[in-house]
Records
---
Amino acid sequence: MSEKKQVTFEDIAKYTGFSKTTISRYFNRPATVTENNRKIIREALDTLGYQENKVAHILATGKTEYVGVIVPSLELDYYSSMLDKILKTYNEFGYKFIVFVGSNDAAAEMRYLEELLAYQIEGLIIMNHTLPSMSLCSLSVPVVAIEREDRFINSVNSDNYLGGIEAASLLLEKPCDVLIHLNSPTDESIPAYRRILGFKDYCLGHGLPCDIMIRDFGYSHEELHIPVKSAFEEMENRYPGMKKGVFCANDVIANYLLGQVIRKYGGLTPYYRIVGFDNTPMAVKAAYSISTIDQQIDVIAREAFSLLLEKIRLKRAGDPAADVPVHKTVSPLILRRETT
Amino acid sequence: MSEKKQVTFEDIAKYTGFSKTTISRYFNRPATVTENNRKIIREALDTLGYQENKVAHILATGKTEYVGVIVPSLELDYYSSMLDKILKTYNEFGYKFIVFVGSNDAAAEMRYLEELLAYQIEGLIIMNHTLPSMSLCSLSVPVVAIEREDRFINSVNSDNYLGGIEAASLLLEKPCDVLIHLNSPTDESIPAYRRILGFKDYCLGHGLPCDIMIRDFGYSHEELHIPVKSAFEEMENRYPGMKKGVFCANDVIANYLLGQVIRKYGGLTPYYRIVGFDNTPMAVKAAYSISTIDQQIDVIAREAFSLLLEKIRLKRAGDPAADVPVHKTVSPLILRRETT
DNA sequence: TTGTACGCGTTATCAA
DNA sequence: TTGATAACGCGTACAA
């Protein structure tokens, strides 16, 4: 009962008296089948309960319409939000996504890659940091990176340098005695590194004291609590009674910092202006809505997918341009909210 | 260059002098190939750069090792967290996931289903509410629902009734003058409805006044802010000076309520004890960590996948038990944190 | 232990 | 407009 095998073109062909070829054409080039015959086939499909089989289709055509996605975690708003936007491109482009959520384990990620390639994905979107772009660029399919080291592969990133500038300028709308930037140790090869530069350059350019506090904030949200707390205490000690403009590397850190401020001051205080980064849902879920630099996650996701699609086309056409890495950049927006 | 077609068993066979069958056996039943010949093949695979093709494998065996997932949104911690855990079962079971993130649009969801079936998924995990289980149960593959109407299909849910009881009992650890439950309009067919019952029954059983406030909190996090605020004001007006124990339908609502309390009282206050539901990352990201009823999302995800796998096996074996819906339940845990 | 021959469900090519 | 036949890449009886 459960194991009745599926209805195939063969069955439809027998039932209608046509050949398999005609049934195939009914689907792929309906114009080449008489309206009357189409009707016959349509009814046959219905009565026999035909169920499309894309696997056979793929084997014959070589086109899977699959894209692989590897993302570090879905517990962080940034990634889940990005994945959300990526998956939603289905409605426009029809590509399906096989998703892996990655450990920091290079071996595991290699397995994901193997699987994805075995399943004949046409392209890959990767957000994980573990595998170097050097080894990713030699894959048989185009790869687009989002906010990770991208030297040898395509990428779409926020204009991080501009973001850093925007954050500094936003903080300076209100007078601040000192500008502070909270970030994790960030390798220069990572796009986000430029946020620090932009911030620093803007401060220097305006003759403002700025303090870049690099602390290890870890990767999971649980880990974040402690280092943010100690960073807060440091700020309290180092700049007592001063108005501090704090630019946090992301909304999650900003949220925890806001939490510390609330605990100490019972709410917002002129002593702290806080700006986050990303504009994840987090930033509005906070007790006080957090001003942030909006990466425009939806735009980035869409650009990433479009770029990938373009590369897939080029590759299929045998165009050598397919193998030249393209790096796109999306300008972030300033979002003024309660914390500034 | 980019379009060189892939290396197949045929090529390896020619290169080594073996037949395709032997190459196939090298992969599937290596024990039946001489160690020496295995070595020869291994080297041939290497030098020719063989790349496994699962599509052909699937067509031949009928087993895709695909599971489809349909989830309403990834902007809400509950769903992204659940998806995270589901995807991570790959490391244990090896099944791959094709993921769709669904609108509330029934037509769109039907398209997702069609696609998934066409790609020969072996089973489906669904969290969306749009399609009734009545129409889901007639699919050719097993379906497991999580926290949605599940009358005719398998499901894994939190023991919502117990959860409601736990929430009430947790609030009563500290004396409260009134117990309040905040929830969206919830259909009786949805598992979460029983939370309300559990809460109410416990209150009645202990002779406590309880107020079930049903408000439309919408689906996205942006929408939530306003109704929570007005609910808060209602509580303030209705129970001035009283100690309120508030059980929120989920952590997101709890978080917004906490935000309102902070804004009014500058921090925690004995006037409000707050309990959330789910134990999403949200609950610890809040300014004060939120006490919550832990659904054990990881356990639910794992159970859902195991159940699906079991059903897939039964179906394959032609066992009629495959078609009998199984409803599993996971007991939630009480998590005492700062808000109580 | 290895090879031959055929099947999986679809599309592509060519001929009718 | 339609049909016969050969791919697509791999698995599996069955035979050797």
---
Amino acid sequence: MQLGKGVEWTTHICTILALVPEKRGLSVDALAEFFEVPAAYLSKQMQLLRRAGIVQSVRGKGGGYRLARHVDAITLLDIVAAIEGPLPAFRCTEIRQNGPCGLKRKDCKRPCEIASAFAQAEQTYRDTLAAKTLASIMQEAAVNATPEHMMDIAKWVQGQLS
Amino acid sequence: MQLGKGVEWTTHICTILALVPEKRGLSVDALAEFFEVPAAYLSKQMQLLRRAGIVQSVRGKGGGYRLARHVDAITLLDIVAAIEGPLPAFRCTEIRQNGPCGLKRKDCKRPCEIASAFAQAEQTYRDTLAAKTLASIMQEAAVNATPEHMMDIAKWVQGQLS
DNA sequence: CATATCCGGATAAATTATATCCGATTAAGG
DNA sequence: CCTTAATCGGATATAATTTATCCGGATATG
């Protein structure tokens, strides 16, 4: 059970995009360089974020990506759902309907107890991620980081704005 | 982010193995037939359960698998860990150390705030699964199932014991 | 000794994750 | 109007993982 790399990449990237001024954007190439990840593949992940309404894209010269919502309104769950999709990790294939003692379809109105248990566990997982906003992550990071490092990042962002 | 089919299969199978009398076992072929899953592959999953100490195997004629512990002492987390392995779903590749503003190794003693947030969410997931024992699952199932269906299963198990 | 069963390794097929490329589109600026 | 820079979307390729099969070896039964 593994999350794709895109989740890690785009979460970090959102914390950088949060530093971009209104009406400006950062290009995929710039972001890929910042984290040393493959630009072409990152582009795909950013498109997923855009379709989920987490970031906005601006085409053409001087364009790029920026956050579509305030950092308070973006949670880790939003990002995971955008990149990984809405499917649950546990896939119930209804094997209780198989074999010599298989149940009939009509006797399966209630969800399988095993599937329910996993669904419940995944719900607690999602709840925890939903409680973590980009704002809260950045606040934690700001507390732990050195002022020099934060200034380095701010300067780099400024330098990328064409 | 998907769990393997083996998790679903082996969890259901454990609920069946719980009905097997002391010193007896059910063969992989019988279990595979019961749920209509591929026997050869199921055999691999059962070996994972055995290495995790969840089931015992008995070789030779009349052998098979049975639970190694009481149903109160087997949790869904035990099964997931056995089949999927102990790796966390979120893989932190430390991309904060990459690129023009990358941190030095020595400045990375604290875990990355993003990785921490995901680790925390996964912990709630595991905690929930750890609270679900095989006993509790079977009790729920017994409440919801018809007496006829439970008897069908009990009879099938009896019929398999050589 | 014949049979049934798990064990472990090798291998293959199917699916998913990762990654690249390119033509189309869009916008900025000379 | 033209060039440049940038995303978009589709097609494609590669790598990794999951799913699945097979077989020789070990082991226990009767």
